[in-house]
Amino acid sequence: NPPNTQMGESSGPARWNCRAKGGSSGFKVAILGAAGGIGQPLAMLMKMNPLVSVLHLYDVVNTHGVTADISHMDTGAVVRGFLGQQQLEDAVTGVDVVIIPAGVPRKPGMTRDDLFNINAGIVKTLCEAIAKCSPQAIVNIISNPVNSTVPIAAEVFKKAGTYDPRRVLGVTMLDVVRANTFVGEVMGLDPREVDCPVVGGHAGVTILPLLSQVKPPCSFTQKEIDYLTDRIQNGGTEVVEAKAGTGSATLSMAYAAVKFADACLRGLRGDAGVVECAYVSSQVTELPFFASKVRLGRAGVEEIYPLGPLNEYERAGLEKAKKELAESIQKGVSFVRK
Ligand code: NAD
Ligand code: LMR
């Protein structure tokens, strides 16, 4: 194997071996499900991230091809591929951040919860390996249904005695990315200048955009609020239907996942003021998990911000969101405890 695609260490010349061990600075990141629709562009974008020195790519199929391909990019990170369950523990050992996009995506007509039966077991198995081999890692969970897979991960870590709620984060960044884009379209603003918090969870009515808190401050008509709320809550379904049976959002998700992982890495580096929305263990509501703005630091989630003032429309949305979220959380917890 050439040095950057080894399954294990390279047997190349000394200088190669030196390089293949990875740079001394930078973080080690593992992607589990790296050969998938999200995994591939996510791996490519993480290979471009200057904060990453070593990139582990794990999947149950096709990791060799993706690893060989991505390893030819002339960026700093060293790429290592891991294939199949017997290499899972090696894939997660010693990494700082694990990103999990493993699992099946939706087809038209399905809810995210319809993925539970397959993806719950996948996330459980992956988290068992993380608990054993990399209990200090920050875990970014993308696999759906996020509202349940995050509680599953937490229960697995609790069982293993390694649970640190600051280190388990459900990735809801795509909802924020969509909200910024759609608000930008409606208001004629550059989406890069829009900041729309999205709280709650990551499915249907649990996705609660706080349009009253958008920055720069925007004055929306009720029609615009209805349109934006519906579009943000159903953005995933919009893509699933457009892809007509071939999958769900992959490219925008990879973009969002990298934006979020980069925030986690900047937090780990000790940067001040890194704040993003994420679905985490939380006391912001009476539910044990909730998405809201969090500050990321060396320990992972270092502060969880309250929701701030909500208008009547948002308070009604919050009640609906909490009802559905409570069931999804319980379903995830019971899956591991049963
Ligand atoms: P995909 O089918 O294209 O890729 C999934 C990958 O996971 C495949 O390569 C598959 O081999 C791999 N995989 C399956 N079982 C595995 C296991 N046990 N260990 C490791 N890898 C395994 O699907 P996708 O489009 O990449 O979507 C992946 C997941 O992400 C889905 O559950 C989807 O619903 C979810 N998703 C979440 C968000 C979000 O905002 N959080 C957005 C988009 C998609
Ligand atoms: C999304 O929001 O795009 C993802 O959760 C995938 C899906 O099933 O909608």
Automatic annotation (TrEMBL):
Q: Where does substrate bind?
A: R106, R112, N144, R178
- Which residue range or ranges hold the Lactate/malate dehydrogenase N-terminal domain? 28-170
Q: Which domain of life is it from?
A: Eukaryota
Record keywords: Oxidoreductase included? yes
Annotated positions binding NAD(+): G33, A34, A35, G36, G37, I38, G39, D59, N119, I142, S143, N144, M253
Q: What class of enzyme is it?
A: oxidoreductase
In the Enzyme Commission scheme, what number(s) does this protein have? 1.1.1.37
Record InterPro entries: L-lactate/malate_DH, Lactate/malate_DH_C, Lactate/malate_DH_N, Lactate_DH/Glyco_Ohase_4_C, Malate_DH_AS, Malate_DH_type1, NAD(P)-bd_dom_sf
> Which Pfam families does this one have?
Ldh_1_C, Ldh_1_N
Catalysed conversion reaction: (S)-malate + NAD(+) = oxaloacetate + NADH + H(+)
Q: Name one GO biological process term.
A: glyoxylate cycle
Family of this protein: Belongs to the LDH/MDH superfamily. MDH type 1 family.
Q: What's the name of the protein?
A: Malate dehydrogenase
Organism field: Linum tenue
What's the source species' lineage?
Eukaryota, Viridiplantae, Streptophyta, Embryophyta, Tracheophyta
